[in-house]
Design goal:
560 residues, alpha/beta, Rossmann fold, GMP Synthetase, Chain A, domain 3, nine-stranded mixed sheet, five-stranded parallel sheet, 16 helices
């Protein structure tokens, strides 16, 4: 099979004119990613364990991934997992992560990607809300799963990554070793449910974003764009697609842009990916990894790029050709640094949402990127800038809410899990999806980010809902009230700041700051704790008692 969702185009104008979402009638991503390449013995994954592990680096071919995911699917089926069941995947950048998703889809099950950075409350809420029947979990997070199992009524099966597991959990390696390949893959279409990915908003708890299999084709098209085709000129998927291309991202594979746009996007095109679990981002180690594996195409959140700027890149050993970035606005100084620090390395910024795929971006071989701009609408999507009040389209140069319409509805999300009213509110009656982001569009079609219309904080590429952080902080007995906002940060884009009203004056500020940070880390995630905490006598509220976050942001800005 030589079909690929995004053919090669020699110009932006031609791509916009000729591209269409020609999705197949039958589609299972496990088959697409593993069984459609002319050379199944081509290396798909280079697993590079972190320095502290004793295991040697390993390579997995498409055929080996197919065999192992078959075996895991057979094991999960024996344990009662079937079509439409939700399966949580709490695994870092190691082979067991994609193997779990592939096995799920071979059964017709729905994956729930979850980061290993999540703490107790974050994992419990998502597993319970999705009704996950099973969870595949890294050994480092197994204890947390045991803590919350009693609060997840649908959770029946726990699989622990590794060769052994305690209690009633099942060891991942044993399940694979004890079962045979050859499972009948679930008959699926682009409309078959594939994943629930959680996203944070400014009000209420995180929402589960339900996608169908068409998601992965949308992400594969995005990968073809932001990586400029992996230097592919003929648009085929033969065994030598991409030549010597090698892809890597430091981003967690629970993130949609990393899982779909990088890992599975590369595999759709037959390109190998490097995986390595890591607790943080070390710029020197990142350069070493890229040199060691000859990485040519890297997906880097802006935070990672800003950290790379703090050390000198290797003089001659990098094979890097293209850097792609998304998650938060890419500032002009980063673009200028890439141009000065590297020879002939393109940097392409892209914009998308968990619900909507990657829909706007830059591609330097198609048009000249304008530093600070989000780029232009990608093939397969139309955009409008709408008046936030009237929903009327605005002319170039005016600020309004970005709305997006796909040429094929299936490449966007199906809906918010169990939230029909919020699903309806995301889309206008005539099929335009509302992003909640305020932008301007210039006369040449470039889109410029202005601000978010809600209170969501973008920190290190992660979307953080302030209400979730506020709820965690309020669990501390010495906190009466709290308001959480994002503040400018040179490295992270935004940092989280909490304005805390203590219950009384009898507290030690440094002790309370430390305890609040530890509480949020343990309950939510390592990236969600407030890096700045200001104690206040009172907080501005509405007539109904809600904290006025806008006033807190304005107060913060006036003090700069």
């Amino acid at each position: 099979m030589t079909w690929q969702v995004m053919p090669a185009y020699d110009s932006y104008e031609r791509a916009r004119r000729e591209f269409s979402w020609d999705l197949p009638d039958e589609y299972n991503p496990a088959v697409d990613l593993l069984r459609t390449h002319d050379d199944p013995d081509r290396v798909a994954l280079r697993y590079d364990p972190p320095g502290g592990e004793h295991a040697e680096p390993s390579e997995w071919t498409f055929a080996e991934l197919d065999d192992a995911s078959d075996r895991l699917a057979a094991a999960l089926s024996e344990l009662g997992v079937g079509a439409s069941d939700r399966v949580g995947v709490v695994v870092p950048q190691r082979p067991e992560n994609p193997l779990s998703h592939l096995a799920n889809w071979k059964l017709g099950a729905v994956s729930v990607p979850l980061t290993v950075l999540f703490g107790r409350d974050a994992l419990q809420y998502r597993l319970a809300d999705s009704g996950a029947r099973a969870v595949i979990v890294d050994a480092d997070r197994r204890e947390t799963i045991e803590e919350v199992r009693g609060e997840c009524p649908d959770l029946e099966v726990v699989v622990e990554v590794g060769s052994w597991a305690e209690g009633d959990a099942h060891a991942f390696d044993a399940l694979v070793d004890e079962h045979d390949p050859g499972i009948d893959v679930h008959d699926a279409t682009p409309e078959t449910e594939t994943a629930i990915m959680y996203t944070s908003g400014s009000t209420g708890p995180p929402k589960g974003v339900l996608h169908s299999h068409a998601l992965w084709l949308g992400r594969a098209a995005a990968a073809q764009n932001f990586f400029e085709g992996y230097a592919v000129g003929d648009g085929t998927r033969d065994g030598d697609v991409g030549g010597d291309a090698v892809v890597w991202t430091p981003a967690d594979w629970a993130w949609g842009a990393a899982l779909g746009g990088t890992l599975f996007g590369a595999w759709h095109h037959g390109v190998p990916v490097v995986g390595q679990p890591r607790e943080g981002f070390d710029p020197g180690a990142a350069y070493d990894l890229m040199v060691r594996h000859g990485v040519t195409h890297a997906f880097m959140p802006p935070t990672a790029l800003r950290l790379l700027m703090t050390v000198d890149p290797p003089a001659d050993d990098l094979a890097l050709e293209v850097l792609a970035s998304a998650g938060e606005p890419l500032t002009p100084e980063v673009v200028e640094w890439v141009d000065e620090a590297f020879d002939d390395v393109a940097i392409n910024e892209f914009y998308g949402q968990t619900e909507l795929n990657l829909v706007v971006g830059n591609r330097s071989d198609w048009f000249d990127p304008r530093p600070g701009s989000m780029g232009r609408p990608l093939p397969g999507y139309r955009i409008r800038v709408l008046d936030p009040e009237t929903r009327e389209a605005l002319p170039p140069g005016e600020t309004g809410e970005l709305a997006v319409k796909p040429d094929d509805r299936r490449v966007f999300f199906d809906g918010y899990w169990g939230l029909p009213e919020q699903t309806a509110a995301k889309q206008t009656d005539d099929g335009w999806f509302l992003t909640g982001d305020l932008v301007e569009r210039d006369a040449d079609g470039y889109v410029w980010f202005v601000s978010r219309a809600d209170d969501v904080i973008l920190t290190s590429g992660y979307r953080v809902g302030p209400m979730e952080v506020e709820s965690a902080v309020l669990e501390h007995p010495q906190v009466e009230q709290v308001g959480v906002v994002g503040i400018p940060d040179d490295v992270r884009g935004e940092a989280i700041k909490a304005f805390v009203q203590p219950t009384d004056d009898a507290f030690d500020p440094e002790t309370l700051r430390r305890e609040i940070r530890e509480l949020v880390r343990d309950r939510l995630a390592a990236y969600e704790y407030p890096r700045e905490i200001e104690f206040v006598e009172s907080l501005p509220t509405t007539s109904t008692g809600k904290v006025r976050r806008l006033e807190l942001r304005e107060r913060e800005g006036s003090e700069e």
